[in-house]
Amino acid sequence: MDVVADSQKRTTRPPRRLLRWALAAALGGFVFGYELAVISGALLFLRDDFALGAFQQGALVSILPLGAMAGGLLAGRAADALGRRGTLILIAGLFIAGTAVATVAPGYGVLLAARAVTGIAVGAVSSTTPLYLSEIAPPDARGRLVTLNQLMVTLGIVVAYGVGVVFSGSGSWRAMFAMGLIPSTLMLAGMVRATETPAWLAAHGQADRAREVLLQVVDEGQARRLMEDLGRFQAQESRRVGVRTLVRSAAAPALLIAVALGAMQQFAGINAVIAYAPSVMERTGLTASNSLLSSVVIGLANVAATVVSIRLVDRSGRRPLLLASAAGACVSLALLALTFEVSLGDAGSWLSLICLIGYITAFAIGLGPIFWLLISEIFPPDSRAAGASVAAAVNWFSGFLVGLAFAPVVDAIGQGPTFWIFAAVCAVAFVFVRRYVPETKGRPFADIAADVRAQFDRTSHDDARTPRRAGR
């Protein structure tokens, strides 16, 4: 349930108080991005300190998305029981604990466990932060405010790359991990001062408190109308759908869209590229230091493209950006694969970098941020937390599989064929989005849910008629 339903009358910039709450929650996205990418620089040095083979390196990368899968599944129940704010406070504590242990890890086993704890926090924050932001955002700004989380993710990634460059001279991978304590602590402090969402408060019998929160960001008349809207949804929220019953509920079509997009987003190779970017560039002939510098360039392109996405998502809509993103990523990955298959001499490294930048740019405009936005929009109110939780878990399990398999697959078939596989996934994503994903820009949640069900009903009827036509 969004805080400002009267989008036609309220189109001004959100109040500073609202932006502070949003920024505190979005710091979780920053830590998410930092923890995801910091391993790329650290791996260049700790693999020698701990004498890691290809499988051990893959496990160290993939344990984070595996933990994130568990965190994603747990987050839905926690967000309903503890509240969105309470869950984010708990997540910040997990970030601090996991990062601290990783910093002082005496060996591979302890480091692996610490990264698993961090992964649980990453998975939980990846679904809870968009949920929190969507419930405090006006419909006309919901895309921008929720996509702020993805911007923070990309900023975390580029900062992690930059930290890797700073400490590459000393090879201090422990210092790289330790720097993650700063944003984690800031997130904890910010969420302690933030508010719970009015939707959660109203659904849990705290209507007076919900009204108090609304009055901090809207006037008396708007607050009254919003409380009436919250009351209409309260009955649905009191019959919340759990994870086990989600597939048999009215949210099943939305779940299919969310799960499919979550899997395709990861099998398009994004986390493998982020985690292994320095290693990929090192294979083109660059030194470790230059590989890290090239990763910073990739990270900056990621940030810039996400800023563009924020500006376009509430103007151009979700579907056009998703389609353009899938097409652009497909072409960039196919060209990247060619740079590894064709002998290009010294120019090969720079052409590979250009293709990687093209891929990251295309991904960051659509497939990256809009997946997280859609899972906070397409589910009915009674299943929003559970649906986002399952989608995030599938997303992270897919990331685990890709992260674990990437290095061994590259060793087995080479980098070129590996990136052709990622390109094929992007082509499938384009077809899926064009057929199934509805436009959600500026629309009430109830209308979106109805459109999702209607879209699948139409598709089912079309599929049922196809064999009969083919048999004539």
Pattern of helices and strands: HHHHHHHHHHHHHHHHHHH
Total number of helices: 19
Regions with little confidence, pLDDT below 50 for 5+ residues: 1-12, 466-472
General shape: globular
Beta-strand content: under 5%
Overview of this structure, please?
Helices cover 79% and strands 0% of the residues. It is an all-alpha fold and 472 residues long. The protein has a single domain, classed as MFS general substrate transporter like domains (Growth Hormone, Chain: A), CATH 1.20.1250. The N terminus and C terminus are likely disordered.
What is the strand and helix layout of this fold?
Blueprint: H1 16-49, H2 54-81, H3 84-104, H4 108-136, H5 142-166, H6 173-178, H7 181-193, H8 198-203, H9 207-215, H10 220-237, H11 252-267, H12 270-282, H13 288-313, H14 318-341, H15 347-365, H16 367-374, H17 384-413, H18 415-436, H19 445-470
Helix pairs in contact: 1-2, 1-3, 1-4, 1-5, 1-7, 1-12, 2-3, 2-4, 2-17, 3-4, 3-7, 4-5, 4-17, 5-13, 5-16, 9-10, 11-16, 11-17, 11-18, 12-13, 13-15, 14-15, 14-18, 15-16, 17-18
In short, what is this structure?
The chain has helices at 16-49, 54-81, 84-104, 108-136, 142-166, 173-178, 181-193, 198-203, 207-215, 220-237, 252-267, 270-282, 288-313, 318-341, 347-365, 367-374, 384-413, 415-436, 445-470. The chain is an all-alpha fold and 472 residues long.
Keywords summarizing the entry:
Growth Hormone, Chain: A; 472 residues; mainly alpha; 79% helix; 19 helices
